[in-house]
User: Which sequence fits this backbone?
């Protein structure tokens, strides 16, 4: 019997506003525990929240970039639950009138993933389990989040991977979040069900909460999919519940029964007014959106003539894409892409380093060198050597080289090559006898004599001309 996988995702993205969503405490990560708190974010009775307008702005940008409609009036609600990470015993979120709705993302499979909604809410504190007991750090409490909820439209693990990677990249290009999954600033709740092929109704789903690595999301879906099939094949019902993925053993286990929205007793947050967004605001934010990854990729391929695979590698890293564009300014973009991928990428060992994108030499410096090459002041060999040395030493051109040292010496290339040809009759005759590679030895001699300052193609042409003359 064959089964179909059904997945829906709820993705939390921590917004990188300077201050929290309902107070002016800083949102910085890694400070000493409970140092960035106040009566509002600690939930003291009587402390009143005030909505940080930057949060609305960031969330609208995220909505526009994912094809969402923007609600001109949305509403804040209380989601009630009792847990030590939430001192108020309710989270301020949005329930039935979210800020953004009806969006979507097209995937390369041709499938469109519908985005049901994006709402704004506050994050909870963080529990830290120690040998002495549980400690709570409320610094994260009140950090602004958006939650991006899809319909159950995913049909394969590959689609999930593409969506999460793409969503993460979009948020990073928008600069609304650093989306560091390992630090928890982007995390996914993964809802999974299976059904027999041909069945039109959905099966019962389970939910894997707070997944913060794309590769673990993919592994977890795979094992949960198999587990559910196994349950069904053994005639056992799937229980709607929250499960946890155990990385070390690559299996999922039950955490608790799934709560329904009625369990949260949602009601309108009485301490906050409705959230209004004007047409003018939406238009201004839409006009100021940066170029998004898909458009950038298309431009690199269509306008720059870079092949798609290479373009993708650059677009994956916003900081490096920015560097690349500065470096490619006014020169042949394919040559710039080549320098980028062969030499600049070599400066980094890990993906994180590429994401940071700190190149030891300014983009303007490499741009200058590429201009020299375009003007014929550096040949291809010299260009490679110069770029490589600059990046290795972390210095600009002038700190290491002068242009004079690459100027071709005044030589009569034709005379030089004639001399080499007449000095090496054996090589010439084996070349003429069909051993085409023999010519390499002659070119090599000429390169040596010109100290690599002359373009190898020109040398090759001169050697061939000299051979023609001998033969004639
Ligand atoms: P809740 O708010 O109670 O978690 P929702 O109906 O809002 O429930 O759905 C939450 C997520 O679960 C959504 O991303 C949705 O796409 C997904 N989902 C709903 N039903 C299924 C299903 N049968 N299989 C897989 N995912 C599902
Ligand atoms: Mg949920
Ligand atoms: Zn505060």
Assistant:
């Amino acid at each position: 019997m064959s089964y179909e996988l059904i997945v829906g995702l709820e993705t939390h993205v921590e917004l990188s506003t300077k201050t929290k969503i309902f107070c002016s405490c800083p949102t910085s990560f890694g400070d000493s525990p409970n140092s960035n708190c106040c009566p509002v974010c600690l939930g003291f009775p009587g402390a009143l929240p005030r909505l940080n307008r930057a949060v609305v702005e960031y969330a609208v940008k995220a909505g526009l970039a994912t094809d969402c409609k923007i609600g001109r009036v949305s509403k804040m609600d209380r989601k009630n639950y009792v847990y030590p990470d939430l001192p108020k015993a309710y989270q301020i979120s949005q329930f039935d009138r979210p800020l953004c709705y009806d969006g979507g993302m097209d995937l390369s499979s041709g499938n469109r993933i519908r985005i049901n909604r994006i709402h704004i809410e506050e994050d909870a504190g963080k529990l830290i389990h120690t040998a002495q007991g549980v400690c709570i750090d409320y610094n994260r409490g009140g950090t602004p989040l958006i939650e991006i909820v899809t319909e159950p439209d995913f049909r394969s693990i590959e689609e999930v991977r593409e969506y999460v990677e793409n969503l993460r990249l979009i948020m990073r290009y928008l600069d609304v979040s650093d989306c560091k999954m390992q630090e928890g600033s982007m995390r996914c709740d993964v809802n999974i069900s299976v059904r027999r092929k041909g069945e039109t109704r959905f099966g019962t789903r389970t939910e894997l909460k707070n997944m913060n690595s794309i590769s673990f999301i993919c592994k977890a879906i795979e094992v949960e999919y198999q587990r559910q099939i196994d349950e069904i094949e053994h005639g056992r019902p799937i229980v709607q519940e929250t499960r946890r993925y155990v990385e070390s053993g690559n299996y999922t286990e039950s955490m608790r029964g799934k709560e329904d929205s009625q369990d949260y007793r949602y009601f309108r947050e009485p301490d906050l007014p409705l959230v209004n967004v004007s047409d003018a605001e939406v238009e201004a934010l839409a006009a100021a959106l940066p170029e998004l990854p898909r458009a950038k990729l298309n431009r690199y391929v269509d306008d720059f003539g870079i092949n798609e695979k290479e373009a993708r590698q650059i677009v994956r890293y916003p900081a490096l894409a920015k560097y690349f564009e500065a470096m490619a300014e006014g020169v042949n973009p394919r040559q710039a892409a080549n320098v980028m991928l062969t030499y600049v990428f070599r400066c980094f060992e890990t993906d994180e380093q590429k994401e940071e994108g700190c190149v030891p030499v300014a983009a303007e410096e490499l741009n200058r060198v590429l201009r020299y090459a375009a003007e014929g002041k550096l040949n291809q060999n010299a260009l490679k050597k110069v770029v490589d040395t600059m990046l290795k030493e972390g210095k600009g051109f002038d700190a290491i080289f002068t242009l004079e040292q690459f100027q071709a010496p005044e030589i009569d290339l034709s005379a030089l090559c004639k001399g080499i040809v007449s000095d090496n009759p054996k090589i010439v005759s084996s070349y003429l006898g069909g051993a085409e590679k023999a010519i390499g030895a002659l070119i090599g001699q000429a390169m040596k004599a010109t100290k690599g300052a002359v373009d190898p193609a020109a040398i090759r042409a001169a050697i061939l001309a000299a051979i023609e003359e001998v033969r004639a």
